[in-house]
Structure formats: structure tokens, C-alpha cells
């Protein structure tokens, strides 16, 4: 590490951070774009269809429809980048980035493997070192910022459908944020801190001799609330109110084309990746391997990946199973069901803790 | 009289929304597993250019003008099909011919030209029904597309050969046909001859 760092003229810490940034953001983007493929093929399989398989690599290899990904990417790059005359130019240009970047950087605090020491130095497998004082508050805050991407995209489009979509998305995110916050609060209370590392170590061990000591088994109600809120947060079905073909055309991205549209679409998937990582970290023990307290580092990374990809698959799976909500049903669910549940969860846990429960 | 619609009483479990979600997800996942383990050829989707649907026996597709084993056309140019055709897309011209091998020297009638405009045909099968000689069949070919209108105007030789490759028969060409016998002066002959 030292020699590599020296050769590129950076300090060892800097190099390690740079490496982590490259790996994490590279894989998040890779997984996000790969998931557009999983979404299409997976949904096809869920619905007894075939899915895209006509794009061939070099006119020969079908590769389960994967070349479609390349074809779509190329298409988005080479499409004319049309800017409609009625948009607010500056906001219109930064909106896709504003949507994409928060979705991506929310991942920064999440540890994706066990910390390990090598030649006397301790290496942590998360971009921001643990104990940075932000902890889990950071992804939650960043997640809240993500609504600006959608809102700015909608507002700058200067189009009534877009504005309706943006309005819905922002109202939805705001209402679900509260329940989500209350749900994780119960976790913070139990852990006595909000660093993801602490949350994960808290979940080590065995519950009732048969289950891993994950928070899903200890706070199922909180998990339910958090999980549902994650769907609302990522604007995925059944809560995809920012868009809606039958009501508001394409919603907030009606006016976007070519790579700008691709960024907005990809932001959804990046968001999904971050949300899955959050779910895995908070409720499923993050990188910890069940029943193996001293798992090797590579195995922990593998387990984190498995959990992450599983939840991303659940996002796809739910999307192609459930019908959409109506807008008033969404608000009903957010304010009158999830909020009380999360409050009961919080207070119930507090009471349980005062009784010395665990 | 009104119909009494029975309201389904949902149990509290069903109203909780969570349990039905699990049930629904189980259903879709069953479909997922089934679809992903089924080989492509057995799936519901027929991937058209690579795979083709086998049409049922009674399917009314592209026509064929049948021929005898010796290659002579079965059609006797009786115009029944032309009359029966609701789309008026068949146009036949008749001629007479006689040949020792085919007709034992008798004069017989056959179409000199037999055209079906496939663009107008509605594939109703009336021509097949009307034909007294079983000479025109509608069969299972359905890929009827072309780049211009004229190539969908099928002539007699096109119609004879429509299923030649499928049936493994030889394609017949106009040159192989025995010449018509000008036993009677034709109309055009009359007009051509001023005398
Ligand atoms: S199928 Fe019907 S429309 Fe077509 S040629 Fe025969 S009678 Fe005419
Ligand atoms: S009805 Fe049959 S025999 Fe008569 S003209 Fe038509 S195809 Fe020929």
C-alpha cells in the first residue's frame, strides 16, 4: 500500500480512500445499470414473458439479453440532446445530477465488509471512516435531499404534468420520512449510537439459539415500517407517484431526453442500491455472517453483496407483483398507518428496554 | 332484475394488506421459477422469426392451386370460385387444350391465367368451398408480406407453386405446360383478323 501510494504521489490514507471511492461508486453504478437489465428480464420471468433478447453482441451472441444494456446506453449517448424551449435552462441541466448524486453518495458511510488490519494499520471497508460523527444520519439526510432532484427536474420542466409529479413525489417523501426516522430511532436507542459499524456489531451473535441476532427478528414492526418507507423513498412501485402513464404522462421526467433521462432513470436504481444497503445494514446485520463471528473479510464482503442484491431483487419483485396505490391511499398509509405503527414501535421498545429486555 | 353481488368478507388478515402481499409475491415467484426453468421452446411466447406457430389443420392461409400427380392443373376454369368470392379478388381467364397424355384427346378447359389479389382477399375460404374439383385449397402459410403491391398479385404459376417447397414437390414453370390447342378461334383472334 505504501509503495503504491508513493508511486502516485499521495499519502497512504488518501490512496486507500480513493480506492474505496472508486470501488464503491463504480460498483454501485455498475449494479444500478445491471439492475435495469434484471428489472426487465426479471419482470418478464415473473409475468411469464421473455423480456428483451433481440439485441445481439456483434450480431451473434444473445447473452440472455445483456447486450440490450449496451445498446440502450449507446442509444442514450447518441440521441439528440433536446432542450425544450420552455424550460428553465440552468435548473434543467443540473436536475439529473441533483437526482443522481445524492442517490450515489448515500452509500458512503455503509460498511461493506469487516475492518481488517494489515501491516499494523487498520483498514475500514467504508468510504467514510467509522466514528465520523454522522453515522446513519448521513444516508437518511442525503435521502431527504434526493427529493430535490425530482422536484427541481419537475419545476424546471415548466410543464404541468411534471409539476404534478414532482409535487406528489415531494409530498410522499416528506410524509414517509417521518415514519422512517421513527423506525430507525428505535434501532439507535437499542444500539446506543448511530454509527453503522456499531449497529452491525450489535447484531452479532445468536438470538434464541437458532436465529442470527438481526434487528429484523428483534423489531419486526420497525422493519416493516422502514421497508415500506424505503419503497416510498426510492419512488418505486407501489409508490411511484412521481410518474404515472395514465395520469401525468411520464411525470417529473416528461421533458427529459437522451442522457439526462438516462441519469434520472439510473438515479432510481442507484437509490435502490443505497436503500437495499441500508436495509441490509440496519435490519440484516450488514456484512456480518450469521453464526460466524470471526468470518474472513472476503466472506463478509460476499455476504454483504448477497444481502444487498437480495433486497434489490425484492424491489423488483414487489414492483411487478403489486398494483399501484391511489394517491389518497398513499397518504392514508403514510400518516394514519405507518406513523402510528412506528410510534408504537418506538415507545414499545423504550418500555421493553426499561424492563431490561433486549 | 338486479343482480345481487356478493361482497367478499375480508378477514382481518386479508385487510392487514401485509399477508396478501406475501401471498401475491409467492404467486409471482412461482411463475418466475416456472418460467425460468422452462426451456425457451416450451414457453408461452412464440419468438416469431426464430419459431413459428404450427397452424391448426383447418387454417385458412395462402391458397394453393392443386395439380394432378402428372403435373396437370386440377382447375377446370369453371369460374365458381370467382363467383363465390365476396372480395372479388379472383380473376380467371379460360382456355381450351387437348393433349393425348392428359386428356385422351378430348378438349378440356383450364385457366390460362388465374389471378388472386392477396391484398384484397379476406381468406374466407369461399373459393375452396365453391370449387367442384377440389382444385383450390387454403393452407397454413400466413407470412404474406411484400415490398410492393404487385408482388402480392399472385398469378397462376405462383399459386401452383405456393406449397411446392413445403410438400417437396417440383416447382412447375410455365414452359413445362402443354400448349393450348387453338381449336376455336379466340375472341382476340377474331379481332386480330380483319377478314
Ligand atoms: S378466400 Fe375468400 S376472398 Fe380469398 S380468394 Fe377465396 S373466396 Fe376470395
Ligand atoms: S372453382 Fe375450382 S375448378 Fe372452378 S375455376 Fe375455381 S379453382 Fe378452378
Descriptive overview:
The complex is a heterodimer of chains A (358) and B (195). Chain A is mainly alpha-helical and 358 residues long. Chain A has one domain (2-354). Helix content of chain A is 64%, strand content 3%. Chain A has 13 helices and 4 strands. Chain A has helices at residues 2-7, 12-46, 67-78, 89-105, 137-157, 160-191, 196-202, 215-218, 220-233, 245-248, 258-283, 297-319, 327-354; strands at 116-118, 121-123, 206-207, 211-212. Chain A has a two-stranded antiparallel ribbon. In chain A, helix 6 (160-191) packs parallel to helix 13 (327-354). Chain A is globular, with a radius of gyration of 21 Å. By secondary structure, chain B is α+β, with helices and mostly antiparallel strands. Chain B has 2 domains: 11-53; 63-180, Alpha-Beta Plaits (2-Layer Sandwich), CATH 3.30.70.3270. Helix content of chain B is 28%, strand content 13%. Chain B is built from 8 helices and 5 strands, in the order H-H-E-H-E-H-E-H-E-E-H-H-H. Chain B has a 3-stranded antiparallel sheet. Chain A binds chain B through residues 42, 44-50, 53, 224, 317-318, 320-322, and chain B through 18, 21, 24-25, 27-29, 31-32, 34-36, 40, 43-45, 47. The site of one iron/sulfur cluster has 13 residues of chain B, from helix 3.
